[in-house]
Structures are given as C-alpha cells and as structure tokens.
Amino acid sequence: MLSRGASGSLAIAVIAALAAGCGTGPSPSSPAATAPGAVSPTPGSPTPVATVSSPATDAPSPTSPAVGPDLIGRLGCGQGSEIDVPAKVLHQPAEGELAPTAQAEALRTFVMTPDAAEVGYPRSGWRVVSMSPTRVDYLAPGRDGWYFVSVEDIPDLGGWQAWEHGSCDLQVQLPQGTGFATWQLDPASPPRPEATSLTVLAREVACASGKPMDGRLLPPIVLYAPDAVTIAIVVRTRPGDQDCPGNSPEPVTVELTEPLGDRPLFDGSSYPAQRRS
C-alpha cells in the first residue's frame, strides 16, 4: 500500500513525464498511476516545493471522520492564479487579522463590510501567505471554501487597501499544459465493495471550447489510505485560447490495485480532497 507522501510525489512526477511526452494520451480506461515507493521528479519537470500530507485543522472538512489522502506539491488558487501557498502556511496560527499592523487593519476593514460578509468571507482565521514591502496575501477558509485577500500599499488612496480578493480553489499546481478534471460517481454504476474498477463522470476544469477530453486524459492518480481512497483525474489542456461554453461530464474508468471495500472516495482535484461517496 502506498504511503501518502510516496504516492503523491510520484503522481506529480508521472504527470510531468507524460505531459512532456508525445501527443496522444491514454484512453479513459488507462490504469491508475501508482508504484511501490517514492521516486525523484522527472528531469526538467517542476519540482514540488511543499509537502502536504493532511489538511489544516480548520480547513473545510468532509462530511465524515474519514479524510482522503491529498496530492503533494506546490499549492495555489487554481488555474491562472499567481498566488503560491506554501504548505507550511496551513499549519501556522490562523490569526493574521489580529496583527497590530496597517496591513492587518486593511484586511479587517474589508472583511467587516456587508458585501464581504454576504459573499462568505470570514472575519477571522486568516493566514499570511506571502509578504513584501508593498503587498501581503492572506488566505482563510470561509463559507464556501477558501478565500484570499491581497492588500497593497497604494499611496494615492491613503496607504494600505484590500486591492484584490476572491475565492481560492486551493489545489496542487500541476505542470504546465495539464489540469484537473473534477468528478462525481456515475449513479448508473455505483462501486461495489469488491470492485477493483469503477466509473466516474469527469468534467474538465479548464476552458476547452466544449471539446471532449478523449485523447488528452492522463492515467488517473489513485492514493490509498486504510480508511479512504483519493482519485485525481488529470488531462492535457488544449493549447492556445479556448472558449468557455462549459464542459460536459465524460465517463472515465479508474482501475484500482486493491478492492475498494467500504472506504469512501475523495476527489483529489482540490485541497483538501473532497468526498464523493
């Protein structure tokens, strides 16, 4: 059985190697990417800079005591985000809004507004993600997931202001040219305890001009734990500019190396992994 660290590091290395390979990806029935131990990242591929093995204690939690294993790597706020989230940040005290600084005062002023409360920004529980002389990025779990607020020193507006903010789809950042697909179980094919193969309905996250993932799917990543199984569906993104009419769910067959048993399934496209069964 793979450890969380070994399987997560290997998964990113496998993705990097496949993404750099030739054009046509494996079919939806390709076997899961697993191996008996950790390996070094593929030469030339992005090297994970953070180790993530379990969600922060006050992060959005699944609906049961079971927690799905998480992928390991550099965290960010999803596709196109410029905010890097060192994993150690998630294990630091969540009290950035309490600091006696102008930056924290700008954060407090913003989260206390009615508009921020309506959207779901929390008033407490903020962590400092990064800091420079002119900008501080904060991150916190809120009503509908993670949120970020960036405050900047803007002299023309009187100093520190909340300048950028929004939801943060916290996830492991994949090598360039690849992205996640979220998934749900196929209600027509619920998994059985003895199952070593199951079908999920996967929906590509990135814009793809409505084109199917067929030919672009990489082998699913499967992480095993005694009380949970995490599946991450990864796809080569379409090159160039793409329209965003919305992607349709597509069936993907995932092969397991051991029977599922009564373990719940988690989707590894986000961090922490989200429960799907």
In terms of topology, how is this protein built?
Elements: H1 4-19, E1 75-76, E2 84-85, H2 102-111, H3 114-119, E3 127-131, E4 135-142, E5 145-154, E6 159-168, E7 171-172, E8 178-185, E9 197-204, E10 221-225, E11 228-236, E12 250-255, E13 265-267, E14 274-275
Parallel strand pairs: 11-13
Antiparallel strand pairs: 1-2, 1-7, 3-4, 4-5, 5-6, 8-9, 8-11, 9-12, 10-11, 13-14
Structure explained in plain terms:
- With 277 residues, this protein is of the alpha+beta class.
- It is 12% helix and 29% strand.
- It has helices at 4-19, 102-111, 114-119; strands at residues 75-76, 84-85, 127-131, 135-142, 145-154, 159-168, 171-172, 178-185, 197-204, 221-225, 228-236, 250-255, 265-267, 274-275.
- Strands 8, 9, 10, 11, 12, 13 and 14 form a seven-stranded mixed β-sheet that branches. A four-stranded antiparallel β-sheet has the order 3-4-5-6. It has a three-stranded antiparallel β-sheet with strand order 2-1-7, with no helix packed on it.
- The longest helix is centred in the first third of the chain and has 16 residues, at 4-19.
- It starts with a helix and ends with a strand.
**What fraction, in percent, of the residue positions are helical?**
10-25%
Helix count equals 3
Low-pLDDT runs: 1-7, 21-64
What is the ordering of alpha helices and beta strands? HEEHHEEEEEEEEEEEE
Provide the structure class: alpha+beta
Largest sheet: 7 strands, mixed
Q: What is the distance, rounded to the nearest whole angstrom, between the alpha carbons of the first and last residues?
A: 21 Å
Mean pLDDT: 80
Strand count: 14
The total tally of domains equals: 2
Shape: elongated
Rg, Å, rounded: 20 Å
Beta fraction of the residues?
25-35%
